[in-house]
Amino acid sequence: MLLQNFFKDKEASRQMQYAKFLDGYSPIFSQFGQNIYASDVVQMCIDVIATECSKLQPKHIRIDNTGMRVNVKSSLNRLFKFSPNPLMTTRDFIEKIIWLLYMNYNAFIYPMYEIKPDGRGGQYREYTSFYPLNPTQVTFLQDASGMLFVEMAFSNGDKFTLPYADVIHLRKKFSVNDIMGGGMNGQPDNQALLKVLKINDSVLQGLEKAIKTSLSIRGILKIQSMFDGEEQKAERARFEEAIETGRTGILPMDVKGEYVPIQVDPKLIDKSTLEFLQGKVLNYYGVSVPILSGDFNDEQYQAFYEKTLEPIIISLGQAFSKTLFTQREIDFGNEIFFYPQKLLFTNTKNKIAVADILGNRGALTNNELLELFGYSPYVGGDIRNMSLNYIDVSLANEYQMQRARRRKREVDPDE
Question: Which Pfam families match (predicted)?
Protein backbone atom coordinates (compact mmCIF):
# COMPACT_ATOMS: atom_id res chain seq x y z
CA MET A 1 0.00 0.00 0.00
CA LEU A 2 1.47 3.34 -1.06
CA LEU A 3 0.25 5.14 2.06
CA GLN A 4 1.45 2.54 4.54
CA ASN A 5 4.82 4.05 5.42
CA PHE A 6 3.43 7.57 5.36
CA PHE A 7 0.63 6.70 7.77
CA LYS A 8 3.04 5.03 10.18
CA ASP A 9 5.18 8.16 10.20
CA LYS A 10 2.15 10.24 11.12
CA GLU A 11 0.94 8.04 13.97
CA ALA A 12 1.86 9.41 17.36
CA SER A 13 2.32 7.39 20.52
CA ARG A 14 -0.26 8.92 22.85
CA GLN A 15 -2.93 7.74 25.22
CA MET A 16 -6.33 7.62 23.54
CA GLN A 17 -9.85 6.57 24.39
CA TYR A 18 -13.08 6.14 22.46
CA ALA A 19 -14.56 9.48 21.43
CA LYS A 20 -17.79 10.39 23.19
CA PHE A 21 -20.79 11.49 21.15
CA LEU A 22 -24.12 12.89 22.25
CA ASP A 23 -26.11 9.94 20.89
CA GLY A 24 -24.35 7.58 23.32
CA TYR A 25 -23.48 4.99 20.67
CA SER A 26 -20.08 3.35 20.39
CA PRO A 27 -17.97 5.27 17.82
CA ILE A 28 -16.98 2.14 15.87
CA PHE A 29 -18.40 1.87 12.36
CA SER A 30 -18.12 -0.92 9.78
CA GLN A 31 -18.01 0.07 6.12
CA PHE A 32 -20.10 -2.76 4.67
CA GLY A 33 -23.13 -1.78 2.64
CA GLN A 34 -22.67 -3.65 -0.60
CA ASN A 35 -25.67 -5.98 -0.53
CA ILE A 36 -27.78 -3.72 -2.79
CA TYR A 37 -25.11 -3.37 -5.47
CA ALA A 38 -25.92 -6.70 -7.12
CA SER A 39 -28.84 -4.86 -8.74
CA ASP A 40 -28.12 -3.70 -12.27
CA VAL A 41 -30.44 -0.70 -11.85
CA VAL A 42 -28.59 0.46 -8.72
CA GLN A 43 -25.23 0.13 -10.45
CA MET A 44 -26.45 2.05 -13.50
CA CYS A 45 -27.81 4.87 -11.31
CA ILE A 46 -24.57 5.28 -9.36
CA ASP A 47 -22.50 4.97 -12.52
CA VAL A 48 -24.34 7.80 -14.29
CA ILE A 49 -23.97 10.06 -11.21
CA ALA A 50 -20.26 9.23 -10.82
CA THR A 51 -19.62 9.67 -14.54
CA GLU A 52 -21.26 13.10 -14.60
CA CYS A 53 -19.40 14.22 -11.47
CA SER A 54 -16.10 13.07 -13.00
CA LYS A 55 -16.44 15.97 -15.48
CA LEU A 56 -15.98 18.49 -12.65
CA GLN A 57 -12.79 20.56 -12.58
CA PRO A 58 -11.59 21.30 -9.02
CA LYS A 59 -9.53 24.47 -8.61
CA HIS A 60 -7.88 26.41 -5.83
CA ILE A 61 -9.27 29.93 -6.05
CA ARG A 62 -9.22 33.07 -3.93
CA ILE A 63 -12.12 35.49 -3.58
CA ASP A 64 -10.78 39.05 -3.56
CA ASN A 65 -12.21 42.11 -1.81
CA THR A 66 -14.61 42.78 -4.69
CA GLY A 67 -16.05 39.25 -4.53
CA MET A 68 -14.34 38.12 -7.74
CA ARG A 69 -12.90 34.60 -8.01
CA VAL A 70 -9.20 34.64 -8.86
CA ASN A 71 -7.20 31.55 -9.84
CA VAL A 72 -4.22 30.88 -7.60
CA LYS A 73 -0.83 29.48 -8.62
CA SER A 74 -0.40 26.64 -6.15
CA SER A 75 0.56 22.98 -5.84
CA LEU A 76 -3.15 22.21 -5.40
CA ASN A 77 -4.02 23.41 -8.88
CA ARG A 78 -1.12 21.45 -10.32
CA LEU A 79 -2.46 18.27 -8.70
CA PHE A 80 -6.10 18.93 -9.55
CA LYS A 81 -5.41 19.65 -13.21
CA PHE A 82 -4.40 16.15 -14.31
CA SER A 83 -3.34 13.74 -11.57
CA PRO A 84 -4.13 14.04 -7.84
CA ASN A 85 -1.96 10.97 -7.20
CA PRO A 86 0.35 8.70 -9.23
CA LEU A 87 -2.39 6.10 -9.77
CA MET A 88 -5.31 8.26 -10.91
CA THR A 89 -6.27 11.02 -13.27
CA THR A 90 -8.55 13.75 -11.97
CA ARG A 91 -11.52 12.08 -13.64
CA ASP A 92 -10.68 8.71 -12.03
CA PHE A 93 -10.17 10.38 -8.66
CA ILE A 94 -13.58 12.08 -8.60
CA GLU A 95 -15.39 9.03 -9.98
CA LYS A 96 -13.92 6.80 -7.25
CA ILE A 97 -14.92 9.27 -4.54
CA ILE A 98 -18.54 9.28 -5.72
CA TRP A 99 -18.68 5.46 -5.92
CA LEU A 100 -17.30 5.17 -2.36
CA LEU A 101 -19.77 7.80 -1.16
CA TYR A 102 -22.77 5.95 -2.60
CA MET A 103 -21.53 2.52 -1.53
CA ASN A 104 -20.71 3.43 2.07
CA TYR A 105 -22.56 6.75 2.54
CA ASN A 106 -19.15 7.98 3.70
CA ALA A 107 -16.05 8.79 1.67
CA PHE A 108 -12.62 9.51 3.16
CA ILE A 109 -9.83 11.26 1.23
CA TYR A 110 -6.37 11.70 2.67
CA PRO A 111 -4.31 14.70 1.46
CA MET A 112 -0.60 13.87 1.66
CA TYR A 113 1.59 16.89 2.43
CA GLU A 114 5.05 18.14 3.39
CA ILE A 115 5.76 20.80 6.02
CA LYS A 116 7.85 23.66 4.60
CA PRO A 117 9.06 27.05 5.93
CA ASP A 118 7.13 30.05 4.61
CA GLY A 119 10.06 32.50 4.74
CA ARG A 120 8.49 34.51 7.58
CA GLY A 121 9.51 32.23 10.39
CA GLY A 122 6.39 30.11 10.07
CA GLN A 123 5.45 26.91 8.25
CA TYR A 124 2.90 25.82 5.69
CA ARG A 125 1.67 22.59 4.14
CA GLU A 126 2.56 21.81 0.56
CA TYR A 127 0.18 19.12 -0.66
CA THR A 128 1.74 16.39 -2.78
CA SER A 129 -1.14 13.97 -3.51
CA PHE A 130 -4.69 12.97 -2.64
CA TYR A 131 -5.85 9.39 -2.01
CA PRO A 132 -9.43 8.11 -1.66
CA LEU A 133 -9.54 5.58 1.20
CA ASN A 134 -11.79 2.54 1.53
CA PRO A 135 -11.49 1.31 5.13
CA THR A 136 -13.51 -1.68 6.29
CA GLN A 137 -13.91 -0.16 9.75
CA VAL A 138 -13.40 3.28 11.27
CA THR A 139 -13.13 4.06 14.98
CA PHE A 140 -13.17 7.57 16.41
CA LEU A 141 -10.78 8.26 19.29
CA GLN A 142 -9.75 11.28 21.34
CA ASP A 143 -6.69 12.10 23.38
CA ALA A 144 -6.48 13.76 26.78
CA SER A 145 -6.88 17.22 25.25
CA GLY A 146 -10.08 16.19 23.46
CA MET A 147 -8.51 16.20 19.98
CA LEU A 148 -10.41 13.85 17.67
CA PHE A 149 -8.65 11.03 15.77
CA VAL A 150 -9.91 8.40 13.36
CA GLU A 151 -8.51 4.87 13.36
CA MET A 152 -8.96 3.13 10.01
CA ALA A 153 -8.75 -0.63 9.49
CA PHE A 154 -8.25 -1.94 5.95
CA SER A 155 -8.99 -5.28 4.32
CA ASN A 156 -5.32 -6.38 4.48
CA GLY A 157 -5.34 -6.09 8.30
CA ASP A 158 -3.45 -2.78 8.57
CA LYS A 159 -4.67 -0.09 10.98
CA PHE A 160 -3.73 3.59 10.95
CA THR A 161 -4.68 6.42 13.28
CA LEU A 162 -4.89 9.95 11.86
CA PRO A 163 -6.06 13.33 13.14
CA TYR A 164 -9.64 13.69 11.98
CA ALA A 165 -8.95 17.29 10.97
CA ASP A 166 -6.43 16.00 8.39
CA VAL A 167 -8.97 13.76 6.62
CA ILE A 168 -11.50 14.98 4.05
CA HIS A 169 -14.79 13.36 5.05
CA LEU A 170 -17.83 13.37 2.74
CA ARG A 171 -21.19 12.13 4.03
CA LYS A 172 -24.45 11.10 2.40
CA LYS A 173 -27.78 11.10 4.29
CA PHE A 174 -26.07 12.65 7.32
CA SER A 175 -28.93 12.38 9.79
CA VAL A 176 -29.24 10.40 13.03
CA ASN A 177 -25.55 9.62 13.60
CA ASP A 178 -23.36 12.34 15.13
CA ILE A 179 -20.42 11.98 12.76
CA MET A 180 -21.10 9.37 10.06
CA GLY A 181 -23.49 9.37 7.14
CA GLY A 182 -26.18 6.72 6.74
CA GLY A 183 -28.13 5.18 9.60
CA MET A 184 -27.58 5.13 13.34
CA ASN A 185 -24.69 2.66 12.99
CA GLY A 186 -22.86 4.75 10.40
CA GLN A 187 -23.73 2.33 7.62
CA PRO A 188 -25.94 2.66 4.54
CA ASP A 189 -29.58 2.53 5.59
CA ASN A 190 -30.94 0.60 2.61
CA GLN A 191 -33.83 -1.27 4.21
CA ALA A 192 -36.52 0.58 2.26
CA LEU A 193 -34.65 0.11 -1.01
CA LEU A 194 -33.93 -3.55 -0.27
CA LYS A 195 -37.65 -4.34 -0.15
CA VAL A 196 -38.11 -3.00 -3.67
CA LEU A 197 -35.00 -4.77 -4.95
CA LYS A 198 -36.13 -8.10 -3.48
CA ILE A 199 -39.50 -7.79 -5.23
CA ASN A 200 -37.79 -6.80 -8.46
CA ASP A 201 -35.42 -9.78 -8.17
CA SER A 202 -38.33 -12.18 -7.58
CA VAL A 203 -40.07 -10.79 -10.67
CA LEU A 204 -36.94 -11.27 -12.79
CA GLN A 205 -36.47 -14.83 -11.52
CA GLY A 206 -40.10 -15.55 -12.36
CA LEU A 207 -39.59 -14.25 -15.89
CA GLU A 208 -36.51 -16.43 -16.32
CA LYS A 209 -38.37 -19.54 -15.17
CA ALA A 210 -41.37 -18.74 -17.36
CA ILE A 211 -39.16 -18.41 -20.44
CA LYS A 212 -37.32 -21.66 -19.68
CA THR A 213 -40.61 -23.49 -19.15
CA SER A 214 -42.08 -22.26 -22.41
CA LEU A 215 -39.02 -23.50 -24.30
CA SER A 216 -38.57 -26.89 -22.60
CA ILE A 217 -41.35 -29.53 -22.38
CA ARG A 218 -43.76 -29.22 -25.31
CA GLY A 219 -45.61 -32.53 -25.15
CA ILE A 220 -45.84 -36.15 -23.96
CA LEU A 221 -45.25 -39.29 -26.06
CA LYS A 222 -47.85 -41.81 -24.89
CA ILE A 223 -46.72 -45.38 -25.65
CA GLN A 224 -49.62 -47.81 -26.01
CA SER A 225 -47.79 -51.00 -25.01
CA MET A 226 -45.72 -52.13 -22.02
CA PHE A 227 -42.00 -51.37 -22.60
CA ASP A 228 -39.13 -51.76 -20.23
CA GLY A 229 -36.61 -48.94 -19.72
CA GLU A 230 -34.38 -49.74 -22.69
CA GLU A 231 -37.31 -50.18 -25.06
CA GLN A 232 -38.75 -46.82 -23.92
CA LYS A 233 -35.42 -45.11 -24.69
CA ALA A 234 -35.34 -46.71 -28.11
CA GLU A 235 -38.93 -45.64 -28.84
CA ARG A 236 -38.16 -42.05 -27.74
CA ALA A 237 -35.08 -41.97 -29.91
CA ARG A 238 -37.15 -43.16 -32.86
CA PHE A 239 -39.72 -40.42 -32.14
CA GLU A 240 -37.06 -37.69 -31.95
CA GLU A 241 -35.54 -38.91 -35.20
CA ALA A 242 -38.95 -38.65 -36.85
CA ILE A 243 -39.24 -35.03 -35.63
CA GLU A 244 -35.75 -34.11 -36.90
CA THR A 245 -36.25 -35.69 -40.30
CA GLY A 246 -39.75 -34.31 -40.84
CA ARG A 247 -39.93 -31.78 -43.66
CA THR A 248 -43.64 -31.31 -44.26
CA GLY A 249 -44.64 -30.74 -40.66
CA ILE A 250 -46.58 -34.05 -40.69
CA LEU A 251 -45.29 -36.58 -38.14
CA PRO A 252 -46.00 -40.26 -38.99
CA MET A 253 -46.87 -42.43 -35.96
CA ASP A 254 -47.79 -46.13 -35.71
CA VAL A 255 -50.43 -47.63 -33.43
CA LYS A 256 -47.91 -48.05 -30.59
CA GLY A 257 -47.49 -44.32 -29.93
CA GLU A 258 -49.61 -41.23 -29.37
CA TYR A 259 -48.25 -37.65 -29.02
CA VAL A 260 -50.13 -35.43 -26.56
CA PRO A 261 -49.13 -31.71 -26.79
CA ILE A 262 -48.93 -29.58 -23.62
CA GLN A 263 -50.33 -26.09 -23.82
CA VAL A 264 -47.73 -23.87 -22.07
CA ASP A 265 -49.12 -20.47 -21.09
CA PRO A 266 -46.67 -18.75 -18.71
CA LYS A 267 -48.05 -15.70 -16.91
CA LEU A 268 -45.67 -12.75 -17.25
CA ILE A 269 -45.56 -9.54 -15.22
CA ASP A 270 -47.10 -6.61 -17.09
CA LYS A 271 -44.98 -3.72 -18.32
CA SER A 272 -46.45 -1.14 -15.93
CA THR A 273 -45.48 -3.24 -12.88
CA LEU A 274 -41.89 -3.60 -14.08
CA GLU A 275 -41.67 0.14 -14.79
CA PHE A 276 -43.11 0.90 -11.34
CA LEU A 277 -40.47 -1.24 -9.58
CA GLN A 278 -37.59 0.24 -11.56
CA GLY A 279 -39.02 3.73 -11.12
CA LYS A 280 -38.89 3.30 -7.33
CA VAL A 281 -35.15 2.61 -7.57
CA LEU A 282 -34.54 5.48 -10.00
CA ASN A 283 -36.40 7.95 -7.78
CA TYR A 284 -34.36 6.79 -4.78
CA TYR A 285 -31.16 7.87 -6.54
CA GLY A 286 -32.62 10.92 -8.27
CA VAL A 287 -32.01 9.57 -11.79
CA SER A 288 -34.75 9.62 -14.41
CA VAL A 289 -35.12 7.20 -17.32
CA PRO A 290 -34.02 9.82 -19.93
CA ILE A 291 -30.86 10.54 -17.90
CA LEU A 292 -30.16 6.82 -17.59
CA SER A 293 -30.58 6.22 -21.33
CA GLY A 294 -28.83 9.45 -22.36
CA ASP A 295 -31.87 10.63 -24.36
CA PHE A 296 -32.68 13.77 -22.32
CA ASN A 297 -33.56 17.37 -23.10
CA ASP A 298 -32.29 20.54 -21.40
CA GLU A 299 -35.11 20.68 -18.83
CA GLN A 300 -34.62 17.05 -17.81
CA TYR A 301 -30.88 17.46 -17.37
CA GLN A 302 -31.33 20.72 -15.45
CA ALA A 303 -33.68 18.94 -13.03
CA PHE A 304 -31.14 16.11 -12.62
CA TYR A 305 -28.36 18.64 -12.01
CA GLU A 306 -30.26 20.64 -9.41
CA LYS A 307 -31.69 17.64 -7.54
CA THR A 308 -28.82 15.16 -7.62
CA LEU A 309 -25.53 16.67 -8.79
CA GLU A 310 -25.51 20.16 -7.32
CA PRO A 311 -25.66 19.04 -3.64
CA ILE A 312 -22.68 16.75 -4.28
CA ILE A 313 -20.72 19.58 -5.94
CA ILE A 314 -21.38 21.92 -3.01
CA SER A 315 -20.40 19.20 -0.51
CA LEU A 316 -17.14 18.47 -2.36
CA GLY A 317 -16.08 22.12 -2.36
CA GLN A 318 -16.90 22.70 1.30
CA ALA A 319 -15.30 19.46 2.54
CA PHE A 320 -12.05 20.02 0.63
CA SER A 321 -11.83 23.70 1.67
CA LYS A 322 -12.51 22.93 5.34
CA THR A 323 -9.65 20.40 5.52
CA LEU A 324 -7.02 21.92 3.23
CA PHE A 325 -7.00 25.49 4.55
CA THR A 326 -6.49 27.02 7.97
CA GLN A 327 -9.09 29.42 9.31
CA ARG A 328 -6.79 32.33 8.46
CA GLU A 329 -6.44 31.12 4.87
CA ILE A 330 -10.22 30.79 4.60
CA ASP A 331 -10.62 34.32 5.98
CA PHE A 332 -8.39 35.54 3.15
CA GLY A 333 -10.75 33.98 0.61
CA ASN A 334 -9.02 30.68 -0.19
CA GLU A 335 -11.31 27.81 -1.17
CA ILE A 336 -11.59 24.77 -3.42
CA PHE A 337 -14.29 25.15 -6.04
CA PHE A 338 -15.49 22.34 -8.29
CA TYR A 339 -16.37 24.01 -11.59
CA PRO A 340 -19.38 22.39 -13.31
CA GLN A 341 -19.22 24.18 -16.68
CA LYS A 342 -18.73 20.90 -18.56
CA LEU A 343 -21.99 19.68 -17.03
CA LEU A 344 -24.11 22.76 -17.63
CA PHE A 345 -23.22 23.48 -21.25
CA THR A 346 -23.79 20.09 -22.78
CA ASN A 347 -25.09 21.02 -26.24
CA THR A 348 -24.28 23.49 -28.99
CA LYS A 349 -27.40 25.58 -28.34
CA ASN A 350 -26.37 26.26 -24.74
CA LYS A 351 -22.76 26.94 -25.74
CA ILE A 352 -23.87 29.54 -28.30
CA ALA A 353 -26.05 31.23 -25.67
CA VAL A 354 -23.14 31.35 -23.20
CA ALA A 355 -20.74 32.69 -25.86
CA ASP A 356 -23.26 35.34 -26.82
CA ILE A 357 -23.96 36.53 -23.28
CA LEU A 358 -20.51 36.28 -21.69
CA GLY A 359 -18.44 36.86 -24.82
CA ASN A 360 -20.18 40.10 -25.77
CA ARG A 361 -19.60 41.44 -22.27
CA GLY A 362 -15.88 40.68 -22.26
CA ALA A 363 -16.23 38.05 -19.54
CA LEU A 364 -14.47 35.39 -21.68
CA THR A 365 -11.25 35.61 -23.67
CA ASN A 366 -11.11 34.54 -27.30
CA ASN A 367 -9.24 31.38 -26.28
CA GLU A 368 -11.87 30.55 -23.66
CA LEU A 369 -14.56 30.90 -26.32
CA LEU A 370 -12.60 28.57 -28.62
CA GLU A 371 -12.21 26.03 -25.82
CA LEU A 372 -15.97 26.14 -25.21
CA PHE A 373 -16.52 24.82 -28.75
CA GLY A 374 -13.62 22.35 -28.69
CA TYR A 375 -11.10 24.39 -30.71
CA SER A 376 -7.44 24.86 -29.79
CA PRO A 377 -6.19 28.27 -28.55
CA TYR A 378 -3.92 30.56 -30.54
CA VAL A 379 -1.09 32.89 -29.56
CA GLY A 380 -2.49 36.26 -28.58
CA GLY A 381 -5.96 34.88 -27.97
CA ASP A 382 -6.01 35.74 -24.27
CA ILE A 383 -7.74 39.06 -24.96
CA ARG A 384 -11.28 40.09 -24.15
CA ASN A 385 -13.56 41.78 -26.64
CA MET A 386 -16.89 43.33 -25.77
CA SER A 387 -19.80 44.88 -27.59
CA LEU A 388 -20.21 48.67 -27.47
CA ASN A 389 -23.89 48.07 -26.80
CA TYR A 390 -23.01 47.51 -23.13
CA ILE A 391 -21.61 50.08 -20.69
CA ASP A 392 -20.56 50.22 -17.06
CA VAL A 393 -23.47 51.09 -14.75
CA SER A 394 -21.68 54.06 -13.18
CA LEU A 395 -20.76 55.45 -16.59
CA ALA A 396 -24.31 54.95 -17.81
CA ASN A 397 -25.67 57.01 -14.91
CA GLU A 398 -23.18 59.80 -15.61
CA TYR A 399 -24.00 59.70 -19.33
CA GLN A 400 -27.73 59.99 -18.67
CA MET A 401 -27.23 62.92 -16.26
CA GLN A 402 -25.17 64.76 -18.89
CA ARG A 403 -27.90 64.21 -21.49
CA ALA A 404 -30.52 65.48 -19.06
CA ARG A 405 -28.51 68.67 -18.42
CA ARG A 406 -28.05 69.27 -22.15
CA ARG A 407 -31.76 68.91 -22.82
CA LYS A 408 -32.58 71.30 -20.00
CA ARG A 409 -30.23 73.91 -21.42
CA GLU A 410 -31.82 73.50 -24.86
CA VAL A 411 -35.26 74.17 -23.37
CA ASP A 412 -34.16 77.01 -21.07
CA PRO A 413 -30.86 78.56 -22.33
CA ASP A 414 -30.81 81.07 -19.45
CA GLU A 415 -30.20 78.39 -16.85
Answer: Phage_portal
